[in-house]
Design brief:
By secondary structure, this protein is mainly alpha-helical. 64% of the residues lie in helices and 0% in strands. The chain contains four helices and no strands. It has helices at 2-17, 28-45, 47-57, 61-71. The radius of gyration is 18 Å and the shape is elongated.
Length: 87
C-alpha cells in the first residue's frame, strides 16, 4: 500500500512540475497543443533539424526559427469553448 501511494505522489509531482505530462482532466486540445510545442522546441533546439527545414522550405535558418517560435504561441488555434454541465 505504501508503494502505491509513493508512485502516485511522484506522478502528481511530475504533473505539477512539467505541464506536458498531463493529468486526468487534460483535454484533447491541451494534449495536442503540448505535443506541437514540444516538437517545435525540438526543431528550434536541434541545429541540424533547423537546417533541414530551412533547406526544405528554401528559407534562412533564422526565418524558419522565427516561424517556429511564432507557431508555438497557438499551434492548434484558439482553445475550444468549454461546455458547462451546469446549464
Amino acid at each position: 500500500m505504501g508503494e502505491r501511494y509513493n508512485i502516485h505522489s511522484q506522478l502528481e509531482h511530475l504533473q505539477s512540475k512539467y505541464i506536458g505530462t498531463g493529468h486526468a482532466d487534460t483535454t484533447k486540445w491541451e494534449w495536442v497543443t503540448n505535443q506541437h510545442r514540444d516538437s517545435f522546441s525540438l526543431f528550434v533546439a536541434q541545429h541540424d533539424m533547423l537546417s533541414y527545414f530551412a533547406l526544405a522550405e528554401n528559407e534562412s535558418r533564422a526565418r524558419v526559427k522565427f516561424n517556429f517560435m511564432e507557431r508555438m504561441i497557438q499551434p492548434c488555434g484558439p482553445p475550444p469553448e468549454r461546455m458547462d454541465l451546469d446549464d
